[in-house]
Design a protein that fits this description.
The structure holds three protein chains of three kinds. Chain A is an alpha/beta fold. Helices cover 26% and strands 27% of the residues of chain A. In chain B, the strands form three sheets. In chain B, strands 1-4-5-8 form a four-stranded mixed sheet. A four-stranded antiparallel sheet of chain B has the order 2-3-7-6, covered by helices on one side. Chain B has a two-stranded antiparallel ribbon with strand order 9-10. The chains are: A alpha/beta, B alpha+beta, C alpha/beta. At the A-C interface, helix 1, helix 2, helix 5, helix 6 and strand 11 of A face strand 3, helix 3, helix 4, strand 9 and strand 10 of C.
Chain lengths: 402, 383, 278
């Protein structure tokens, strides 16, 4: 890819200078000049230019070298994450999308399952639309560990040569798949929000947000197989259960060496908290600086309890020590995507918005009518949360008969 | 305005600004409400070497002077005029050692002060001796190789929190001002206790308390300068420290104006931002101009002091007088521009007005400053 | 003991604001900062330095101006800084970036721990840390929120014969790895790579003396020719992924403001939401 300014068209208006996130553009002698050391080819300037004076040359099909495409790469794979021998819902979401992609490509959808004593559980992957499940059973695979899991996955990929591999963008998935991609020199795109197939070239079109969600980029891996992508939890819809769907469970075993690990998993600690897992929750009620002190978080917790939600917090309230870091929603915390997100006393700085703006319904309660949170809110309430929250909790209690 | 700061001064300013925005701003309201001493922030300031910016390198500092202290105090005060005082008041308590201490005294006390491991305080004011410093009633009775200190000091900034106190006491009350001496007194010395912590209108993150001396034994080696020099030590110290108070006032005013400019842009009345009204614009312009005038005067005074000029009382009094009166006026106008919101404690602006007030009062009231300035003028004419 | 901290310079998104009128981003004048997660990595390195008298080397791959980020790391207390920079590296994706950084780390030879932030705020991929450990073939612990124990036994003669890294049987790290439900306790022999989350520490501010030192500190600059890299595996050539399209997503529109006293607005909201609550 390359970027250039067409001097005949450039009027030196400086619009592009202001919009460049990397301060890579200057106007010299009334013409824009791009500092290629700073430019990341993000394309923000192209959108902004009113004179079509900036051109980003993308990959043309002739540049794509199909010679490396090795015959025999086929099938769409989904890495099925399991914890305590239970397949995690992220896997079903990936199977839903994976089925679509496999149908577009006219290939099989395969689930990859690593664990111990999960052969019955593997059938669930079939019932969610997979044609095959590659299942590897070993006591060493009971819990996720980077090395055995990545070695097994690399072996499987080398042996069966899938065309596409999907994996959840979870703490397991991100650690695992990044290592796997290195081992097989494959392209990997993180946190895709859209996946599609370019049928002509049989390429996986991977669309993901960049720069805090303000730019979307579509990415392909033209010369490397498999094409791998991770997807965040709750971005895709779960595949429906069909108990009559037929498929094969193929068990594979490897030498003990493949299961060996230099790291030792000593303990798994589940932190018992008053709330459910934030990223899993369908409803999140979050509190921010507007709560004024730690004790007032109870108002948020009370509401969350009545409507069955998890409790989130803005960075400001976490930094103030009102809530632990595990509750933090936003750029340096967790990204959530619930059906309902209620922001109480959160002004809505960009760092918070990137962590919750893909929620289905956003409710904002804030006393400042100019708070940026209202720009993304489906429903906004301007007012005193100390009056509104208790009232809301009471009314929900009645309405939901709790 | 470009004040042609040195590279090192820019570093100090930027570092203080970083501490102010990242560490102080988020907790300023909390400390103001609770009125507790901000030890966590003091530690950050110490780890960042800010307590050493006016202390020579051989004593563990970074070798600057009053100008460096002014720059740091201004930046810290933009976020909180109370928290910044932990530095400015330590400097006030340290200047007597820098100006009059022996090598031994300097080596003993300055390194810990430069690192912020210990804070200092200066103790002159008493219930009956405020502006009239010559009326000091605390006595230091000489007993061979030690002095016995008796009396009570009032409203001492950093009192109770500081480890090192420079205390002015009378060795001979019959000589009035000429009978005073200054002593270094360490916290924990037998016979040295603290009275109640004051509940103040502003600068509430700063500690202010009484120091009570009852037959407190001070070794002779802790005398600063000579007997009879107490009043001179105090006056020379104030000459050095007044630009610091002025810088505190300057920072408070600038901090208030920064918030206000932001607010008037956002606040809409009659369908538009109130910043579009000329009445508001004129107020902003006046405030910015007065702040800049104060800054120019303070920086010039600080540089003159650092250049080694001997007669600086008039200029340093002018800087303190002008900056503190300006800060009171600017913060009052800022509250005005916030309207009803400005009067509410939920909004940060009224704190600036409360914090500004003290700068007109302490380290010599502004009436005393006018006296200093006038008497210099009259003396100059006589000569 | 030698600790290597990998950092990245990124645009400061905290300076990015939304224009309330047009609902678009105001990005002008955004300065570059050290990726916030890398600040935790630097701080953890410095804490280990204080504890073990370790030597902290900070390394970044980026354009020439990334030197600023390295100077900032030195002002915080890092001992040495290396800038890996070459036009040939431009266009690197996470594969090529982790390959190049791993080659630079191999050139440093003697190290016990590599620390990275969990991800960078501009790309958000979280792939480079694990990628480096895979290239180096060392164990990794991702999402570390606490180092519980660390033991470092240097080899007896002090001289290390192995070229790749410091191997010592008794050296290990025990850390808490954050998961969605809580955390895992993992032990790994050294050398090892960890990626850290915000919870691990509170980064210090620079000191004045550190800033003065940073101003004049020498920064090593390594280009492609200085590293044992395969030209086919760096920059655009070595990057399997290619960006083919960039577009701005439609902004999420502000919705409806509910009017009324607390009782009325609560009633309205309950009506609107109760159908959505299971």
């Amino acid at each position: 890819m390359s970027i250039k300014i067409i001097n005949e068209k450039c009027t030196g208006c400086t619009l592009c200078v202001g919009v460049c996130p990397f301060a890579a553009i200057k106007v010299v002698d009334k013409k824009a000049v791009i500092d290629l050391d700073k430019c990341t080819l993000c394309g923000a300037c192209i959108e902004e230019c009113k004179f079509d004076a900036i051109v980003l040359t993308k990959i043309s099909p002739s540049e794509i070298d199909f010679s490396k495409k090795i015959e025999g790469h086929k099938d769409v794979w989904v890495f099925c994450e399991q914890k305590n021998a239970v397949i995690q819902s992220i896997s079903y979401e990936l199977l839903g999308k994976g089925r679509e992609l496999a149908d577009l490509l006219g290939v099989d959808l395969c689930g990859i399952l690593l664990g111990e004593g999960m052969k019955d559980e593997a059938k669930k992957v079939i019932h969610r639309g997979a044609n095959k499940v590659y299942y590897v059973d070993s006591p060493k695979l009971k819990h996720y560990q980077d090395e055995p899991y990545s070695k097994v996955l690399v072996r499987l990929i080398k042996e069966y040569r899938p065309e596409v591999v999907l994996c959840g963008a979870t703490s397991i998935g991100r650690s695992l798949i990044s290592r796997v991609a290195i081992g097989i020199h494959a392209g990997l795109t993180a946190d895709c929000t859209g996946l599609d197939i370019d049928r002509e070239k049989r390429l996986l079109l991977q669309t993901r947000p960049a720069f805090g969600g303000n730019i979307m980029a579509t990415i392909v891996c033209p010369n490397h197989w498999p094409q791998m992508a991770t997807v965040r939890h709750k971005v895709m819809k779960e595949a429906e259960v069909n108990n009559h769907h037929k498929g094969k469970v193929i068990e594979r075993g490897f030498d003990e060496e493949v299961y060996s690990s230099r790291t030792k998993l000593l303990d798994i600690v589940e932190e018992i908290e008053e709330t459910v897992n934030l990223t899993e929750a369908d409803i999140v009620v979050s509190g921010g600086r507007g709560l004024q002190k730690a004790e007032n978080f109870k108002l948020v917790e009370d509401l969350a309890k009545v409507i069955g939600g998890a409790v989130g917090a803005s960075r400001a309230s976490v930094d103030a020590g009102w809530k632990s870091y595990s509750h933090q929603v936003g750029q340096t915390g967790k990204t959530v995507c619930p059906k309902i997100y209620i922001a109480c006393g959160i002004s809505g700085q960009i760092q918070h918005l990137v962590g919750m703006q893909s929620s289905d319904i956003i409710v904002a309660i804030n006393k400042d009518p100019h708070a940026p949170i209202f720009n993304v809110a489906t429903y906004g309430i301007v007012g005193d949360l100390f009056e509104i929250l208790p009232e809301l909790t009471e009314q929900f209690k009645v309405a939901l008969k709790k | 305005m470009d004040y042609l700061l040195t590279e090192e001064q820019i570093m100090i300013r930027d570092l203080a600004r970083q501490i102010a925005t990242e560490k102080i701003k988020p907790v300023a309201a909390k400390y103001d409400i609770e009125g507790i001493f901000p030890w966590d922030i003091v530690k950050v300031m110490g780890d960042s070497d800010l307590f050493g910016i006016y202390i020579e390198e051989k004593y563990g500092g970074t070798g600057g002077g009053v100008m460096e202290l002014v720059l740091a105090t201004e930046e810290l005060s933009k976020a909180c005029g109370g928290i910044s005082l932990s530095l400015a008041a330590t400097a006030l308590g340290t200047f007597p050692i820098i100006l009059f201490g022996t090598e031994e005294q300097k080596h003993k006390y300055l390194p810990d002060l430069a690192r912020g491991k210990k804070l200092a305080a200066f103790a002159l004011t008493e219930a009956g001796a405020g502006s009239d410093a010559a009326a000091v009633a605390t006595t230091a009775e000489k007993k061979g190789d030690y002095y016995l200190l008796n009396g009570t000091k009032q409203w001492i900034t950093n009192g109770g929190e500081a480890e090192v106190y420079t205390v002015v006491a009378s060795v001979d009350r019959s000589k009035g001002a000429r009978g005073a001496a200054t002593f270094i007194v360490e916290k924990g010395t037998e016979g040295f206790e603290f009275g109640k912590k004051e509940d103040k209108m502003g600068i509430r993150a700063s500690a202010t308390s009484e120091l009570i001396f009852s037959d407190c034994k001070i070794p002779k080696k802790n005398l600063l300068g000579r007997e009879g020099m107490g009043f001179i030590v105090a006056m020379k110290t104030f000459d050095q420290s007044r630009p610091g108070v002025a810088a505190q006032a300057l920072g408070i005013a600038q901090g208030a104006l920064d918030l206000t400019v932001q607010y008037v842009k956002e606040r809409k009345q009659f369908g538009k931002s109130i910043s579009s009204f000329q009445g508001v614009q004129f107020m902003l312009a006046d405030m910015a101009t007065e702040i800049e005038a104060a800054r120019a005067l303070i920086y010039a005074t600080a540089r003159m002091t650092d250049s080694g000029a001997k007669k600086i009382s008039k200029e340093s009094a002018m800087a303190k007088l002008f900056a503190s009166d300006m800060a009171m006026k600017v913060t009052t106008d800022c509250v005005q521009l916030f309207g009803g919101y400005g009067y509410m404690r939920d909004y940060p602006i009224e704190k600036f007005m409360r914090d500004a007030k003290i700068t007109q009062i302490y380290e010599g009231t502004n009436q005393i400053q006018r006296g200093v300035i006038a008497s210099s003028l009259i003396k100059e004419k006589a000569a | 003991m030698n600790i290597i901290v990998c950092i990245k310079q990124v645009p400061d998104t905290t300076e990015v604001r939304i224009d309330p009128e047009t609902n678009t981003l105001i990005r002008s004048g955004v300065r570059c900062i050290i990726n916030p997660f890398d600040m935790y990595a630097i701080e953890e390195g410095l804490r280990l330095k204080d504890k073990f008298e370790a030597r902290v080397t900070v390394i970044t791959m980026g354009p020439p101006q990334a030197e600023e980020a390295l100077r900032e790391a030195i002002s915080l207390g890092a001992d040495e800084a290396i800038l890996v920079s070459d036009r040939l590296f431009a266009g690197s994706d996470t594969w090529a970036t982790s390959y190049t950084l791993s080659k630079a780390i191999q050139k440093i030879k003697d190290y016990s721990l590599v620390i990275c932030g969990k991800q960078a705020i501009d790309g958000d991929t979280a792939q480079v840390g694990p990628g480096i450990s895979a290239h180096l073939d060392i164990p990794q612990i991702t999402y570390v929120k606490k180092i519980e124990e660390m033991c470092f036994n240097s080899t007896e003669n002090g001289e290390r014969s192995e070229s790749r890294a410091t191997h010592s049987r008794d050296s290990y790290i025990k850390a808490e790895r954050m998961t969605e439900e809580g955390y895992e306790i993992i032990e790994s022999p050294l050398p090892c790579l960890i990626t850290v989350v915000k919870e691990i520490n509170e980064p210090r501010l620079p000191s004045l003396k550190g800033k003065m030192k940073a101003k004049s500190a020498g920064i090593k600059k390594w280009e492609a020719k200085d590293l044992d890299v395969d030209p086919d595996l760096i920059g655009l050539n070595g990057s399997p992924t290619k960006v083919v399209k960039i577009f701005t997503p439609p902004p999420r529109k502000g919705g409806q403001i509910l009017q009324g006293d607390p009782e009325e607005v609560s009633e309205k909201l309950v009506d609107l939401l109760k159908g959505e609550i299971p």
